[in-house]
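Morning. Coffee machine broken again, so started the prediction first thing and wrote up yesterday's gels while waiting. Chain of 550 residues, entered below exactly as on the submission form.
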Amino acid sequence: MVRHRAAGPRVDDLLERLVRAHNALELPPRGLVTARVRDEDAVAIDVVAALEPLLDVLHVALFELAAVLVADAHLAVLDLDARLELQKVRAHGDERRTAPALLQVEQRVDDEARLDLFGRLAHLPHNVLRRFARGGALGDCLAAVLDAAGYDVWREFYVNDAGNQIEKFALSLEVRYLQHFLGEDAIELPEDSYHGDDIRVRAEEFAAVFGDRYVNADEAERRQALVDFALPKNIAGMQETLAKYRIQYDNWFYESTVHQDGELAETIELFRQAGLTYEKDGALWYKATERGAEKDEVLVRANGNPTYFAADVAYHRNKLVKRGYDQAIDIWGADHHGHVARMKGALEAIGIDPNRLDVILMQLVRLVSGGEVVRMSKRTGKAITLTDLLDDIPVDAARFLFNLREPGSQMEFDLDLAVEQSAQNPVYYCQYAHARICSILKKLASEGVAPRECTGQELCLLATPEERALIRHLAALTDEIVLSAKNYDPARITRYVIELATLFHKFYNACRVRVEDEALMQARIYLCICVRDTIRNILEMLKIMVPESM
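Came back before lunch.
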């Protein structure tokens, strides 16, 4: 579970040598860099959701969320020497916070805006997975950056398999199953249930396996059997699609766990013990307004079912208290900004430091093609899913482009650009820079020129503005990793590698590598190798392919 990756494991002492040359050219030294991911004087940024057209609001009302856990008690120590190894140390020697798993990426849904997640799970891959595109890339790349900065990383997916949504899921399956044997006129599917074709498919699959065994069975038994059959299939579909997107989780945590093991009841009891509950209209309410919220929250409905809000609080308590994670960083859609204060206030109400929860508000994405907003799949005529997207564009482009801007910025995803093989496509541009260097080195090898070790004096020959700019940018890599981890902004690394590719192309156009001065040639070869390895390390960190020829 504990992994420790160096920022540039294959660069060896090359960058160290380049830094010495960099310093010899009187450029600002970098030296030792330290950063705390969670700092007492860190600036909290709140992003207010921008108004969107009604159709966009409807499309994103069920935006899945990603969360991250990191170490409040850890420092990321990044040093340019010693093969650029990244070391982590405990701050203040706090022995109370010793959880080994410090970062978690999960998918969650907000209480008020999620509506019916399991209706969407039941309709996989048609509705849910399209919302994983930006949040999935952001969360996964953030995990990679924190991992590179020396943190222990744990990734977890949160499955909403309890509450009203699963009851509606079960009812929908039941109706379709009974209709399979009794006819559609015998029983009607309620208007507010799930009407997707996949519900019918799951019911028919169930009928093919069990026949009419459950037609006359007890209702509760029949519904449970249907859910037990269909849910794993839907989750397997999610896992398959996410794996295609190169996203994998260390654990899939089921909401039903906090129901079954009593943690949800414990959490509700903590609210009672704090004197923060009251009963109204048969429901149990939390006095959220006493903790700064605009309105009180229902914990238990009149029908006895706990709310999504209560389950969400219990789940955060499970992570931060029961399992001992240091910090929770939730990545939510910007339209969920109102939920931030409610969740923080609820955690504080039950004795959990609200500063252990950070929330990144992420703006939505518009898909465009030919200058027009694209809302429907040409193939299916339905809303574009992640599955549809990955069928139409390369995974490399999707992961790179969705991670091109900071989460709080709105973005347009150009479907035409994503498949374009030109310098206009940033991921292709970076891959091409790597392939170009590989080609240069192969050509030199064919001419009998092999790289060798360079002295510091030889590296000081790299004195042109283009060479100095490359050296300066390479030396800034550790700064960028630190800032990306500290600010939870992996897009910094994406922009860094684009700039690195740009600087290399400028260098290549201005400086010949194959020159008569053998010392200068070797120094430039050394610089090319450093750029190649850095591009490769970054793209691999972001789970993007690194071709050696294009």
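The radius of gyration is 27 Å. Going to sketch it on the whiteboard this afternoon.
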